[in-house]
Every structure is written in structure tokens, then in C-alpha cells.
Amino acid sequence: ILKMTELDLAGKRVLIREDLNVPIKDGKVTSDARIRAALPTIKAAVAAGAKVMVMSHLGRPTEGQYAEEFSLQPVVNYLLENTDLKVRLVQDYIAGVEAQAGEVLILENVRFNVGESADDETLAKKYAALCDIYVMDAFGTAHRAQASTHGVGVFAPVACGGPLLIGELDALGKALHNPKRPLVAIVGGSKVSTKLTVLDALSKIADQLVVGGGISNTFVAARGYNVGRSLHEADLIPEAKRLMDLLDIPETVDVRVGKNFNESEPAVIKDVSEVQDDEEIMDYGPQTAENVAAVLKSAKTILWNGPCGVFEFDNFAKGTEVVARAIADSDAFSIAGGGDTLAAIDKWDLSDKISYISTGGGAFLEFVEGKELPAVAMLEARAAK
Ligand code: 3PG
């Protein structure tokens, strides 16, 4: 892949695709992790004397229809408040727009444009006409073949990878392709079904697999225990059994249960064999969390995606906290990815202690699954020409 850092950007019209798809509440950015990750790229382009334009999607609006709730204005406000960049939001840019050297134009949500999601060629050519150099830096959206992540790069005069994208590919490649062993993967979250391909992929490369959250409830059910009203997927019990045969998966021995799914529900600690029909498993029990922490302690590489319980509720956050702290304290090369995982890391302020935090959610999972990311494939194809 051609790298942005190898190019002379001075005086050039540089169009950077970032993933600024950040959570927003009441018009304010509530997690700035993706913006912070994109800033070094944007600042480097400005410092190099480029005429910088940045584009991104935000959420999933209906194409062809402006909707304020999906505007990038809150991101622009964040940049104005927290950086000294000269930033401005541009609504109409498809027919042509040019930045001045020293300023940064943020192009309004690309998903307002008809043809964006379908990777429409006409739209991609219009984006390409805006620039001399296209920089694909949105690792979080690299698994989407859309006009702003893929098509534009096919038609732009020059297409290259930005430092964030390159950094993500390097870090994830290091963890997956030639990891220091043991490699322990920890996969939490609500459903086995949405993570089945990633669990399968990990079953081939990880030395140990730890499951958490709703996913581990399905494994508990597969061992023949009553899971009461817990989130689980009965139809995936055979898959859970298959994975348990393949791999060393630490067993859930105790759990924290509640009768109601809400913030003030007290957590009751129980042996895994004692869950009642009207109870819901919402977290690991202390012994299970300790066992998992011990497994993590022996790891040389750790890959983490998905919380181990309902960590948004303080009474059911302990399992995820123990895991997060064990990863933070470990000397292993640790990688974490996914929105909930990042929120958990932020909750206990541990981001400095994780070796690498990926900005990818879906893209992170697809990379781990060994799938080709279309935006990366496009950059490779251009580099091969
Ligand atoms: C993400 O949040 O995973 C990326 O920004 C991609 O968003 P999408 O799933 O709406 O394409």
C-alpha cells in the first residue's frame, strides 16, 4: 500500500476519509476516541501544506435526505473547541469545493449523498474530482465498499493509506499473524450468532478462548445448566458444544443474577448450578472472574472484544472490570476493539494501559475473521499497478 507519509502533500488538494462516526447525545460528542485517533493524520496533512478536506459518515441516515441528527456539525464543534485547527463544515461539495492551505473543510455526512452506500461510480468520480490525493484513513469503515471508502480511491489521481489505517493494520497483523504465545482471545457481548464467524476464526489461532456476557450464557446452557431468563441462544447450543470440544474455554463456575433488568437491581452471587427460572445471569461471579484473570495473566498476546456482563449497570460491572484490569496489568501485547469494549475501558480509565485500541467495530471483527477489507483491497490493487 502507498502511504500518505511517502507523499509530498504541499499545495495539493488532499481528501481524507476518516471514520468520525462517533456517539452523539443532545448535539454533543460523547466519546471522542475516533476523533482523537484521526487527528494526527489531519494535523500532519495541514502541517505539510495540503489543502485538506475530510469526509466521513455518521450513523445510518436515509440517503438523499438531510437530517440534523446525522449532521457532522457536533464533530466540527468538538474540533473547534478542542484543537486549534481552522475547521468549517461544508454542506454542498459534490459539484466542487476547494480548501485553502491551512484550513480543514469537513464535508457533511457522505451518507446524505445518493449512491454512497451502493458504491455508485458516478458519485465516486465526483468525490475523486475534488482531490489530487485521496487518503483512506477510516479503518473503522474499511470493511464497507462504499463510494467514499472504495470507489473514490479507484478514480482519484493518487490513492494512499493514512497513518491511522496503516497503524491499525500493523497492530492487528502483529497480534494475529505471528503472535507471541499463548494468545488468549476474550469475546463477550450479547449473542453467539453475531460473533460465530469470529469465534470460529479464533478457534484456529488462539491458544485459549474466554467467553463472556450473553455469549457465555449460551455456553452455560450447553453444559446442561438452567439459565432461567438469561439472554442466550438455545439454537446455538450445538455450536457452543463444538467450540468447547475444539478449545480450552474456562468454565463459568459462578454468576451474578438478578430478577429485573435495571440499574438498581441488586446482584446475587450464585453457583452456576443454582440459577432459578425467574433469574437472569448478568455477570460473571467472583470465582469465574478470578479464573479468567488468571488465564489472562499467563497470556503473551490478548485480543479483547465485547464486555463480560451488563457493565452499564454498576451492580453487574464487576466481571468486566476484573477482566479489563487484568488486561491492563498484563505485560502481554493487548488489543481491544469494538464500541462497548472501548466504553468499558473508558469507564475505568484504562486506555493508557492497553497496548493498542482499535477504532474498528465491525472492521475489527472482519479483520480478525481473516476477511479482506474492500478499502484495503482497493489500495493494494492501486499499489500493484
Ligand atoms: C462502525 O461504527 O462500525 C463504522 O463506523 C461503520 O458503520 P456502519 O456499520 O454503519 O457501516
Automatic annotation (TrEMBL):
UniProt cross-references to Pfam families, sorted A to Z: PGK
An individual GO BP term: glycolytic process
Locations listed in the record: Cytoplasm
Binding site residues for (2R)-3-phosphoglycerate: 34, 111, 144
EC number from the UniProt entry: 2.7.2.3
Origin superkingdom: Bacteria
UniProt xrefs under InterPro entries: Phosphoglycerate_kinase, Phosphoglycerate_kinase_CS, Phosphoglycerate_kinase_N, Phosphoglycerate_kinase_sf
Catalytic activity: (2R)-3-phosphoglycerate + ATP = (2R)-3-phospho-glyceroyl phosphate + ADP
Annotated positions binding substrate: 19-21, 34, 57-60, 111, 144
Main location: cytoplasm
GO cellular component terms, A-Z: cytosol
UniProt pathway: Carbohydrate degradation; glycolysis; pyruvate from D-glyceraldehyde 3-phosphate: step 2/5
Xref: HAMAP family: Phosphoglyc_kinase (MF_00145)
The protein's assembly and partners: Monomer.
Protein known as: Phosphoglycerate kinase
Organism: Paraglaciecola arctica BSs20135
